[in-house]
């Protein structure tokens, strides 16, 4: 996932913008209504429920559209709060239907979200949880950007709202959704931002709102072992592990966090993940790197490593980026790898790269977006 930053316009003296109600948890919304004197505390739960439905079931962005809220209350709400969506800086649609939005959530904070049709039940939205990343996985160009800050729950939910606006998916349909799954596989390590990720999942999964089942929300981690149990307990989300290697020596290189939490600790943590079962399998992500991790021996080692864990393995053909020494495995090698996993009883789909023409495929985003923005800045400078 690509995130680009321009902090030049962030000023310390800027007035605080009004609170955006559409990013608050239910409890946060209730408290905000009390604090702004919209209603007395004993009526706040009911009022919050009413406003919640308008925001998260109907997707309204204007208090005047809340037709069962009295006009004077609408006016008080509009004076104290906003429902505004973040600015969409750029929208692109790929030949294969993949959509990508560059979203400015705050001055200088820009996030890309990618919608991929025909993934999951109908279509998956890949969202980010941090601006930048601290983990420096060596195959991941998007992670070379230094961490700026965690995204708030509101900024995570905003990625979903923007996608649903674009897909015209309001009010929340009971069935036949186009956006059926959410994956936290964008920029950042979600388990370093669990409070906001957990609040965002509470908002997205609420039955009187967007109402996406928690079983259709997947959180991907590179292996922050101590946070696995809290993730499962707090969110009941599906778990994905960015694995990529079957021995510590190689994983130390590909996913340096492995030096802190090695494979033995990681596997113990996964086995203890709350709710894991055949109906709630763990997804292991495995990027296919030519001559690095793609041999039949490694496929067999992978089978051994995940033995006994209800799991599937996503094989991800590597998307090269400028300056990387890694190459993508040959197609035949990937198929041979998949066959060994399949034979051992693990579903192991080979993920087709999506949205390459709009630079939305895994690992392509940051480099190309930053290059484009750098060239725009150069052009602006030259024109000035
Ligand atoms: S793969 Fe994820 S955790 Fe690793 S550097 Fe990239 S964004 Fe960060």
From TrEMBL:
**GO molecular function of the protein, one example?**
tRNA binding
Per UniProt, the enzyme's principal EC class comes to transferase
Say if the entry is tagged with keyword Coiled coil.
no
Enzyme Commission number? 2.1.1.192
Required co-factors: [4Fe-4S] cluster
Q: Which GO terms describe its cellular component?
A: cytoplasm
Residues holding S-adenosyl-L-methionine: 188-189, 220, 242-244, 319
- Residues annotated for [4Fe-4S] cluster binding in this entry: 133, 137, 140
Q: Do you know which InterPro entries this protein is assigned to?
A: Aldolase_TIM, Methyltransferase_A, RlmN_N, RNA_MTrfase_RlmN, rRNA_lsu_MTrfase_RlmN/Cfr, rSAM, rSAM_sf
Q: What is its main location?
A: cytoplasm
Give the start-end ranges of region Disordered: 1-21
Question: What's the family?
Answer: Belongs to the radical SAM superfamily. RlmN family.
**What exactly does this protein do?**
Specifically methylates position 2 of adenine 2503 in 23S rRNA and position 2 of adenine 37 in tRNAs. m2A2503 modification seems to play a crucial role in the proofreading step occurring at the peptidyl transferase center and thus would serve to optimize ribosomal fidelity.
- The protein depicted here goes by the name Dual-specificity RNA methyltransferase RlmN
Organism per entry: Brevundimonas variabilis
- What gene makes this protein? rlmN
């Amino acid at each position: 996932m690509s995130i680009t930053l321009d902090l030049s316009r962030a000023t310390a003296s800027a007035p605080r913008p009004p609170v955006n109600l559409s990013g608050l948890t239910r409890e946060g919304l209730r408290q905000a209504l009390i604090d702004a004197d919209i209603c007395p505390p004993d009526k706040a739960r009911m009022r919050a429920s009413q406003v919640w439905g308008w925001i998260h079931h109907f997707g309204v962005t204007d208090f005047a559209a809340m037709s069962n809220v009295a006009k004077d209350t609408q006016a008080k709400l509009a004076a104290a709060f906003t429902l505004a969506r973040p600015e969409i800086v750029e929208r692109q649609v790929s030949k294969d239907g993949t959509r990508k939005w560059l979203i400015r959530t705050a001055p200088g904070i820009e996030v890309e979200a990618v919608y991929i049709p025909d993934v999951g039940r109908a279509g998956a939205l890949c969202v980010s949880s941090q601006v930048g990343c601290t983990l420096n996985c060596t195959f991941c160009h998007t992670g070379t950007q230094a961490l700026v800050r965690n995204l708030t729950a509101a900024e995570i939910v905003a990625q979903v709202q923007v996608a649903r606006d674009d897909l015209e998916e309001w009010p929340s349909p009971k069935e036949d959704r186009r956006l059926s799954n959410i994956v936290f596989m964008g920029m950042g390590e979600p388990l370093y931002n669990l409070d906001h990720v957990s609040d965002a999942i509470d908002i997205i999964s609420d039955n009187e709102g967007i109402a996406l089942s928690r079983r259709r929300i997947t959180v991907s981690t590179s292996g922050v072992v101590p946070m696995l149990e809290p993730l499962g307990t707090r969110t009941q989300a599906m778990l994905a592990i960015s694995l990529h290697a079957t021995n510590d020596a190689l994983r130390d290189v590909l996913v340096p966090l492995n030096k802190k939490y090695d494979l033995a600790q990681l596997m113990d943590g996964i086995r203890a993940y709350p709710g894991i079962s055949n109906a709630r399998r763990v997804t292991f992500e495995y990027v296919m790197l030519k001559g690095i991790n793609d041999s039949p021996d490694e496929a067999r080692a992978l089978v051994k490593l995940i033995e006994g864990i209800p799991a599937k393995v996503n094989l991800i053909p590597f998307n090269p980026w400028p300056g990387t020494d890694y190459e993508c495995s040959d197609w035949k090698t990937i198929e041979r790898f998949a066959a060994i996993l399949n034979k051992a009883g693990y579903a192991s789909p080979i993920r087709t790269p999506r949205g390459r023409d709009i630079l939305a495929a895994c690992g392509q985003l940051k480099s190309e977006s930053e290059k484009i923005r750098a060239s725009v800045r150069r052009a602006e400078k030259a024109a000035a």
